[in-house]
Amino acid sequence: MAQTRYRSLKDLLGEEYVVPGTPLCSGCGALLTFRLFHKALGKKVVWVNAAGCITLMIVYPFSPLKSSWMYTAMGCAPAGAQGIRDALDILIEKGEVDPEEDLKVVVVTGDGAANDIGLQSASGAIHRRLDFYYLCYDNEAFGNTGFQFSPSTPYGSKTMTSLPTPLIPEGHKGRKKDLFEIWRAHNPPYLATVSPSHPMDMMRKIEKAERFKGPKLFISISPCPPGWGYDTMKTIRMARLAVETGVWPLKEAVHGEVRHTFIPRSLKPLEEYLKEQERFKHLFYPLRREDIIGRMQREVEEYWRKVYSTEVLEEKKD
Amino acid sequence: MMRSKLIAELRPRREVVSTITKSKMLTGNVTAAWAARLAEVDYIPAFPITPQTEIIEKLSEWIALGEFKAKLTIVDSEHSMLAAAGTASLTGARVFTATSSQGLLYGFEMLYNIAGWRAPIVLVNVSRAVAAPISLEPDHNDFLSTRDSGFILLQAETCQEVLDLILLAYRVSEDNRVLLPSLVNMDGFHTSFTREPVKIPEIEEVRRFLPKYTQQLPFRASKPSAKGVAVLRPPLYSFYKYQMHLSSINAINVFKEACEKFEECFARRYDVIEKYMLDDSKYAIVMMGSYASIGKKAVRILREEGVSVGLLKLRMIRPLPSKDIRKALEGKKAVAVIDQNISPGLGGILYSDISSILYNSDNKPKVILPVIGGVGGKTITLDEIRYVVELLEKYANGGEPEPILLLREDELREVESLLRIGVGE
Amino acid sequence: MLIYARFHGRGGQGIKTASRILGNAAHLEGYFTQDFPVYGAERRGAPIVAFTKITDEPSTMFDRGYILNPNLILIADDSLLDDPIVNPLAGLQSNGTVFINTSKSIDRLTRDRCDIRLVTEDLIDLSLKYVGRTILSTGLGSIAAKLTGIIRWSSVEEGVKEELLEIGIKGEILEKNIIFAKVCFERVYPSPLPIPKIVKSSKIVTISWLPPPITIPEVRNIGNTEIRKTGNWRIFKPIINLEKCNRCGLCVVYCPEGVVVMNSEGPEIKYDNCKGCLICFNECPVKAIGYLREVETS
Ligand code: SF4
Ligand code: SF4
Ligand code: SF4
Known about the structure:
The complex is a heterotrimer of chains A (318), B (425) and C (298). Chain A is of the alpha/beta class. In chain A, 35% of the residues lie in helices and 14% in strands. Chain A has helices at 29-41, 77-93, 111-117, 119-127, 179-184, 199-209, 225-229, 235-244, 270-274, 290-317; strands at residues 45-49, 68-71, 104-110, 132-138, 190-194, 215-221, 251-254, 257-260. Helices cover 29% and strands 20% of the residues of chain C. Chains A and B meet through strand 2, helix 2 and helix 4 of A and helix 4, helix 6 and strand 9 of B. One iron/sulfur cluster binds at residues 240, 245-251, 267, 284, 286, 288-289 of chain C.
């Protein structure tokens, strides 16, 4: 990366746009991602939201934001963003709004809204080349309603609607939808995955995205202490383990071209990540389910085999 | 502001009331497009659906030709369309959009939101009966399903009324005493595709009638705000909702006021209701929309035959102008409400509205007759209305009429022959 | 006989389960019972409330919803006492009983209201001792049952079992919880609870139309959540040792709440809003952050 505002952690200590006192859970990974995102985007932002945990940051008469906020409905945050963007564009064009008053329009939703009920609306907005950011905080379930599985829930996770039983020992049988690839198929100018454990990577990606007009899309892993079942102090640890075990690859796609921004020399065993979380406890207790854990591990390895065979080799070439 | 100043400098202001505006043969749909253009809307999110499509086709054509400066975005569904409409309105744009039937129902969730956000958009619905079964012809189930959403509901009969009600709707919706969105309804085919002469006013005249839209706190970098926020304290939620009700009630007088101004500007007079040969009649028929034209014709003929009947046409459905309706119907011997909709298990929707208005009157009609007619675009003939009036005479001294369906023998034969083919002998 | 028990606690403390243990135990005892939690927007750590109503006369159970006139209040966390929005003692009937989980002595309470009975225990301490982790629901439910004076241990035991199994707690942990519940049950004694008086509400008002913007649900006074002192969610308090600290800034970056600020002297935690997640403690590369249980710090 040529020029960056973010050379060291010190560059991340600047102004905050989310003041404390939100009703979100102690140790919430989504809140951390949101706060860092806001830092990178600056103050001139309007957030457009669909139902999820983050919605509850703003309950009358409170808002922790120093910026604007628009809650739409669960299925249509990108369309809400379209309305604001279009209105600002036409009013600026007609000379009725000072361009100084312009705002970055940023959709923020959970994985449930992004993968399911809001997918059509997002697909439409990306396809229309709407100039906006989309931040999906992925806690891998419907956290707001008490942790039921979503299309983003990984295979083998316990949720309130996929309890492991003797009949269904793995818990959740479905596979995690690949939102990155779904979005990439729309050919947005910029698309990336991020993790709050890697703030420099996150900030630089947001900074890079600023160069592009059109949809700029982000998916952030967002560890959730009550849903995943770990002690609140381990939120960063969980996110970091997800990256280091390879289950959460950090990557970006510029005009569809994928590049991994963190390629672990060797992957930590997935088990290290799984065994610290209540949602995977049934894979270890009372009986260790080698079959299920092994299957999960193989899937991660399969993914990275492809990455190593293309990207790392390419790097060697030059 | 900038724009209006510019225009004022360029052109001399026209003081003359344009009673001489030339008329043009237009469909209801094209008329609606004209209304949006004359209201100088900034933004039109859209999604095509029969029979509304012509409206957005026309608007996009004008924009493409550079004749009309606005932003039109075709989105992915009516749900998205209404979301974009609402947020754009909160950003300070004057917004117009249109839909029909399934589309209205698909976006239904957002109607309540837009109203709750107090975003004064104008939405045109071109009525079409709701599936299942699929139909293309009009009735009012789509329109009336929105009656609890907080939208101001206005129903047009003629193409001219489409134009005029849209302009009135912007003025009423954007008035601070109201600040609620409007839904202007016209009937598919019978108004939307019917051409008749429409007077298109000059844009300067419209500007005299319709002030510029200003959103009190639009989304701007220098003035952040949080909108559409959750309200989880039950008393506060009640407070907001009741304020919506009171604001809606305000719309009755604001509409009347706007009608006065409208007459001054365009020499056409409207009110929340329209009475046709009603004041001196013994019996009354209540109708709305395009079929009211048929009703009026029947009333005139029946009058000539010596039957004392008049017609009340509803124009404003929400807020329900109770006082005006009560005054119009008090003292009648019997009233028939012809509902062009059906609420299974109840009968007609407007029947209960009208009955509730009259219940507390000392001088209420002896009977109110529920009639279902014109559902799914079924035609209504003079003789069907004659039949309704005969029933009124029969029930004039009381009785407990059940909802009846207007269906003729020839139509029943058609039904039977279709059933024979579909079901098999 | 009518028992109106109201539970106050924080999300994640098991208030709903406690009210259900009481409800279930009373049901098993043969009484008519209703239990009911209220969920708000609040996530884990924020104040929540639950209710249990018990009677031997079914007609007095023609009731639903909030309890405004409790004769028994159970407070899972003494920090709630000072929360003006929660106001946990509101409506407590004269001669009613209030139980508080605390390690402090709270005389000021009975000084303000000499007409109530105060019972306290340090449930955190007991649960750490008997279960090996902080769990309140079992102890709280069991104590509530005892304080009603009408429920036997056998019903409480059964109630605890059923409710914990319902939320997926079984095996050894369940056994430990039952022991914990028994200990709690034996530590407190009931005294007769007064019949709750019907609450007289204030008069009905007329609402007339008001002009916008106050009638629009939008927040204009943004950035205002700091006044919600989420610091009182804390169980553990992080403490920075500036001598060890190398000013790397990680705690500032990683704090979800954004309550660590970098001053000229080093990082400082704004305790008013620190929720006590301890991410800062866990992530500090030089272990310059420690923590203490909240009580020990005051
Ligand atoms: S449930 Fe999970 S995602 Fe939701 S607020 Fe709590 S920690 Fe955050
Ligand atoms: S993380 Fe530790 S070393 Fe770094 S600034 Fe914070 S207290 Fe100091
Ligand atoms: S414990 Fe540390 S990381 Fe957590 S809120 Fe408090 S200061 Fe922030």
